Amino acid sequence: MRRRTALTVVSAAIGGAVVPLSFAPAPAAAKERRGPQSPTARWDFDERTGTVTREAVSGTADPIGYVFTDARYKPDSDPVRRRGVSGRALYFDGYSTVVTAEGPGRLDPAGGITVDAWIAPYAYEHGIDGKAQALVNQHDPDAKTGFLLGLRRFGQIVFQLGFGTDLIEVKGALDQPAAKGRWTHVAATYDPAALQLRLYRDGRLIGTAATPDMAPELASAEPLLIGRHNRPTLINGEFHANMYMGLMDSLVMRPGTLDDTTAEREYAERVAALPARRVPRPDLTLDRARFDGDRHRPQFHMLPPWHWMNEPHAPVYFKGKYHIFYQHDPLGPYWGQIHWGHAVSTDMVHWRDLPIALAPAADSVAPDGCWSGSACVDGDRGPVLFFTGGDDRLPYRQRTGIALSSYPTDGDTDLPTWTMRSEPVTEALAGLPAGPGTAWAENFRDPFVWEEDGVWYQLVGSGIVDYNGTQVTRKHGGTALVYTARRPEGPWTYRGPLYWNDLTKVPEPGEMWELPVLLPLPGPEGKRTGKHILLVSPWWESFNTNAVKHTYYWIGTFDKRECRFVPDHDKPREFDFGQHFTGPSGFVTPDGRSVLFSITQDRRSEQQHAQSGWAHNAGMPVSVSLRQDGTLGVEPIAEANGLRGSRLAEIRQTSVQEANRRLADVSGDMLDIEAVIEPHDATTITLAVRASADGSEQTLLSYDTTERRFWIDRGRSSLDPDVRKGVHGGTVELDGGRLKLRVLLDRSMLEAYVNGTNSLTSRVYPTREDATGLRLTSEGGSARVVSLDVWRMNGAYDTPVAPAAYDPPRPTDVDALPNHDFATGDLTGWTVVSGTTFSDANVTTRTDWGWGGPFNQAETGEDPAGHHLWGFNPAAGGDDATGVLRSATVTLGGDGVVDLLVSGGNDPDRLYAAVVRAGDGKVLAKTTGRDVEQYRRVVFDLSAHIGERIYVEVVDRATGGWGHINVDDVNVPVRQE
Q1: 3-state SS of 617-682?
Q2: Which of the four CATH numbers 3.90.1150.10, 2.60.120.10, 2.60.120.260, 2.120.10.30 does domain 814-975 have?
């Protein structure tokens, strides 16, 4: 669990403190060849526990950077280790695992260098900014010095060596990659006699490159990093790219040169020394236990074993099993590197993880990402996957591809193996006619496919626009383009737009539709009604405050002959009131139900994703139907009841007051709650969940009988100022004079279903361990509880559910820094020391900066308006203005931990927020931004300075682009006088 330790602010480019590496002076290039010598450095990664790995030659213990060494939301845990080729191996998680080494000892580069290791990759990185996925490196690409052994796209092995004037790279053959899911021995060598770099894969030569007739120059001032590039690209101001994901064993650095004969002999000797003279199969399983104790990670909802997911899609039933796929980045909890994850179930609520189904591949329609799609069974051949193939080489970058399972040959109903066809089935074309304009070719994605009466139908999300040459001059609205075929491979015939929204009249569904879904709506008894539901996710080209918050639908009729949808109502309806339910995908179950899957956005910051190691999860599958009054019926699937454990409450025919008294002993963070309440003369009925004993944290679900409105109030859902809060809801009619409520509570997940007609999906992130209580109240009169049942819920996976862990409470006998969160709306309590960049005009409640996304400033009960200090003030010089701002001087008390939100430019010498000792002006700690406007929380452990007089200083001496800094919620524990 996170210990509030000080943040070391370093260059994002190097990812850690610089550790000098000692090398012998490089003489002129040697002309004689020396064979490989004894290692100067070797990492066997044989440790079973701990946060260091030992360099075997020197005996030095090198630290392993790992996200959960000092965990934020769970108990601390060690880096992941598995059985290696020999002994143990270290599992690099793709975004946080990195070894910072003291170096390989003295090494003469002029006499030749050999670097080799065993690796078993789990996933390949895209090659962001043209940089390699580093296995080990100590190089300065700007100075063209040092070396790097790594992987390029699709596992191509590369080695770089710098000569001061050139950084020479040797690339392995494209058909000889470091294959995923198996151990590969990679070796790179510099031969000064032959003036050549060579690469070997499993003892075989796979690439050469010529080098200059001069000695290499090694980057001794750079850290030796294992698993991370020396100059990684920073993604979203938080994540280091160009990192390795997979197992690594026996990394060795040697002086001297490896030749073909020696490479083959050494590899054969390595294999001969292994048990059964065979390289073992690596264990690359992603273990869910890595997140045990995470207080916010859902336990009975579907989510990946690690890292990032977006919408689940392509639900399909085959041979007694339900399959679901999902957008997945295996390299970290951030958007990118899109693969298709895969899970299987017999009931849609208990899940097993399966291998990744689809991954970007060079010889496919999706070298740059496997985006959303759908699935449909094609007889005995089994399910066919339709996906959006990303290819940045194309003018419109997106097209539809298909993938087939190996079921016809292996008979495995888990469907673990899929093969993408190399040819697309539908493509974005310029000038495709669509209603009042043409299809928006740059946006052509998310195929939804079904078969009916021998005809295959495909919807593709797009928009309708006018073009002037190659430029969009007008956007008419979103649409789904219809195609038909007689078989999955096609040929597919374009049939025009299914339906579209006129932006001038109906702007809510956006400029383009993502993830269009068209499903039949069964009646109350499961009978056919002839009606369909059309669901869409709105998309806008530019930043929009409503993006990724809503799902809209129409009820209507599908004209199969004309391939058109005729709605019963012009205005779309919002499917879910909570602004977290997005990305719908659906199918018809074998018993005739229309079931929807969705993604539940977690609304966390990039920093919170990085600290937690995961992002987003699926919502509970829901059944949709047509009610007798023509409205939509929405309920969690009946199988959700199979997750119930022990019953905690069974209350019948009583008052709200008595029911609340009986709920006093009921608590939990994984609950299923069902209630039927007759309001009588009560005006408001409220169920509080995740409530602490003193009410400082609680989430309120309320129904107003006068306004016929149901809503969630998260104003006190969390004491964490970095958690998004708010009130959301919508109109709901009572059902026969009764309020029928179903609530599924799964740690941070909250889903409420009201009267069988509407859902509200939201997120709550309590900080207190006792925020698990339930309370039922009514106002304005006496309501009656007809029934109220509460069950404890079991997990969705075949692993035990670990109890949620919480941070110990911090000292409360302290004061706050005056106006620490700028809640006064001005600089009261702060002093402008110099310059013009800081003034009252810089204190703002703006939630976004106008050309991008949200600031994510602090949200607290003391400052509900969300004031913060935006260093960029167009009226006072913008980025070119400079100045210094200082807080009041106080005595540091409590636990001595200071934290604040900071964003803006990255310039630690001229642009920073600092804690300064008042007595001598010594800077005790400081931080800068990361060239992003979204705030991130920075923590300084200054416990060694408790009792000293300190102040906070915000310094802006930078001009030009990103020449500003933003600050909010400066928390200093002040000793009470």
Answers
A1: EECCCEEEEECCCCCEEEEECHHHHHHEEEEEEEEEEEEHHHHHHHCCCCECCEEEEEEEEECCCC
A2: 2.60.120.260
